[in-house]
Amino acid sequence: MKENKFIEYIKGIVPGFLVALAVALVGMFIAKFVPKLGAGTISIFLGMFVGNLFLNQDVFQKGYKFSETDILSYSIVLLGATLSIGTLLELGIGGFAFIIIQMAITIVGAIYIGKKLGFSQNFRFLMASGNAVCGSSAIAATAPVIEADDKDKGISITIVNITGIVLMFILPLISKALFKNYTLATGALIGGTLQSVGQVAASGAMVGEQVKDMAMIFKILRVVLLVVVVFVFGHIKNKTNEEIIEEEATDIKKGKVRIPWYVIGFFVTCALFSLKIIPNNISHICKEISNNLEIIALAAIGLRVNVRDLLKQGKAVSLYALGVGTLQIISALALIAILL
Questions:
Q1: CA-to-CA distance for 46 and 40, rounded, in angstroms?
Q2: Which helix (H) or strand (E) is 187 found in, with range?
């Protein structure tokens, strides 16, 4: 009986998974000709195009959901195998303080601006985590913890990526004007502000290889703090939901603690890499697999975004993105002047 259920489950996810995989592969191919956009960003918008015009039938939905949630979870776990504690220590106290304060300002600011514009609590949390940490991955990791619906997740991911694309081109110009492309300051501005890892790499590369490497170190620290942000939002959400509090109290009495498996997996792989148990050659493989899995997941996310819902939010969402993006730039510049 269990075997039959498993077969039925596989049959249910295969159609949507194959579509997500195909969109991701096309996105990777196109990215070879426009590398500044990145395969992930291309896959999201290509998925939106395909999903809204052609392949939005029910038969694909289970596969889309599997690709969006499960595959991205595996990507997050593998990402941990690419992060070393030693690499993060290169930033120094000022660098650490910069990232933590910048993230805190972004989170508080995104929640405040969203509240003033009338957005729901879940949507504000997703926008805050996506902009403060690592874009789509952060939103995907935060969504199940706060029990956000697919509509909020899809729209927030789209807006965060659009914001990141715009800033990806603007930040090098700001850096050139203010810092003369000084490596530490430019790396902090790009790595501490941009939403996705791909956008950080692309924007940093526009300035130079050293800036790109420095920006990636700042970005890595933000990614590591994803776990902290997820737990904070989960805690805040649970405190505002009496039913969930009662469930957690029962779990504690039974000796159970509900921690997302991918959060534990992330820390485990990070620790194993830092202890050299995972060698560098394996880490490179993990990074490649993680990146590819994320692109498939982003394609699925695009396939599930309903453009009609996005357009309904048009003006308010645009103001939200503009407000958060502007706040991030101003706070980053101020903190760089003070701490770096």
A1: 10
A2: helix 183-191
- pTM, whole model, 2 decimals? 0.66
In tens, the pLDDT along 261-319 reads 776 787 788 888 888 898 888 988 998 898 888 888 878 878 877 667 656 656 788 88
- Backbone phi, psi, residue 36, to 5°: -65, -30
Instruction: Tell me the DSSP string of 15-81.
Output: HHHHHHHHHHHHHHHHHTT-TTT-HHHHHHHHHHHHHHHT--SHHHHHHHHHHHHHHHHHHHHHHHT
- Chain position carrying tokens 């694309």: 165
The span from the CA of 101 to the CA of 124, in Å, is: 19
Which amino acid is present at 181?
N
Residue 175 confidence (pLDDT): 92
Give me the mean pLDDT over the 190-200 stretch: 84
The crossing angle, in degrees rounded to 10, of helices 136-146 and 226-239 is 30
What length does the chain have? 340
Question: In this structure, how many other beta carbons lie within 10 angstroms of the beta carbon of residue 101?
Answer: 17
Look at the block and give the residue holding tokens 């990146």.
291
Contact residues for 206 (Cβ-Cβ < 8 A; gap 6+)? 36, 169, 172
CB atoms within 10 A of CB 274: 17
- Domain locations in the chain as residue ranges: 86-240+313-340
